[in-house]
Amino acid sequence: TVVDIEVSAAPFEFARMSGMLLYIRDITLRKRAQRELARVADFSVSLLRQAPALIWRSGVDMKCNWFNDTWLSFTGRKLEQELGDGWTEGIHPEDRSRCLSTYSDGFKARKPFFVEYRLRRSDGEWRWMADYGMPFDDLDGQFAGYISYCFDITERIQAEERVREMATELSLTEERERRRLAENLHDDVCQILALVQIKLSVARQ
After folding, report:
1. Residues 68/50, Cβ–Cβ less than 8 Å
2. Distance CA 81, CA 71 (A)
3. Could you give the CA distance from residue 125 to residue 74 in angstroms, rounded to a whole number?
4. What is the rounded distance in angstroms from the CA atom of residue 73 to the CA atom of residue 67?
5. 186 pLDDT exceeds 70?
6. Of 124, 134, 146, 164, which is least surrounded by CB within 10 A?
C-alpha cells in the first residue's frame, strides 16, 4: 500500500553521539481530503465557466482576477484584457462612474451590491446588465474577495421605456382631449349666453 508521508528532520546529540532524528507522519487522509477539495473546486469552476450568466471574480485588492467563458464570449475580449481594471473599458462612459462607485462602496462594507449599467457587446452594441455582487470567504473563513453574476436585461429596459413612452403619449392625448372639450364647452357656453342676451333684448322690447 502506498501512503503519503511527511518527514521532518532535526540534528541531535546524546552521550557523545550525534545524528539526525527523523519524524515521519502518515498524511494520507489529509492528502486525500486536499485532492477531493481540489476536484470539487475544479468541478465548481467548470460549472461557473459554462454558466449562462456573465461571471467575474475579484480578490482582496478589488482587482478582477477571473472571468468565465460567457463573459469573454459576450465582450469578445481576451482574459488578459479584462483582468485588473481592464473590464471597465467595456462599460458605457455615462455609467462607469456610478458602477465603480457602487462596487467600491459594497466592497468596503463587504456587503452584497446591485447595479445596472450598459456593457459593450462584441458586435459593438450597448446592452443593459444587472450586476449582482457578493463577498465570499476562502476555506479558512477569511474574506477572499467578490464574485458577481451579470444578466442581460436589455429587453426589460426597452419594454419599460416603451411603456413610459406610451404613458407619456396617453397623457398628452388626454390633455389634448381635455383642452378640446374645454374649448367646445367654452364655445357652447358663449353661444348659450348670446342666445339668452338676444331673448332678453327681445323681451324688453
Report:
1. yes
2. 12
3. 11
4. 10
5. no
6. 124
| Rg of the Cα atoms in the chain | 36
Please report the pLDDT score of residue 37 as a whole number: 66
pLDDT of residue 84: 95
**What distance in Å separates the CA atoms of residue 137 and residue 146, rounded to the nearest whole number?**
9
Tell me if the pTM is above 0.85. Answer: no
Q: CA 24 to CA 18: how far, in whole Å?
A: 19
Distance of alpha carbon 97 from alpha carbon 158, whole angstroms: 23
pLDDT tens for each residue of 125-145: 999 999 999 999 887 788 999
Show the cell assigned to 36.
Answer: 477531493
- Could you tell me if 137 and 143 are in contact, meaning their C-beta atoms sit under 8 angstroms apart? yes
Reduce the secondary structure of 44-70 to three states and give it as a string: HHHHHHCCCCEEEEECCCCCEEEECHH
The DSSP code sequence of 83-101 is TBTGGGGGB-HHHHHHHHH
Burial class (CB in 10 A: 0-12, 13-18, 19+), 92: middle
What does the block give as the cell for 88? 471597465
Amino acid letter, 76: G
152 with 128: CB under 8 angstroms? yes
Residues 188-205 have pLDDT tens digits of 666 766 666 666 666 666
| Residue pointed to by grid coordinates 476555506 | 139
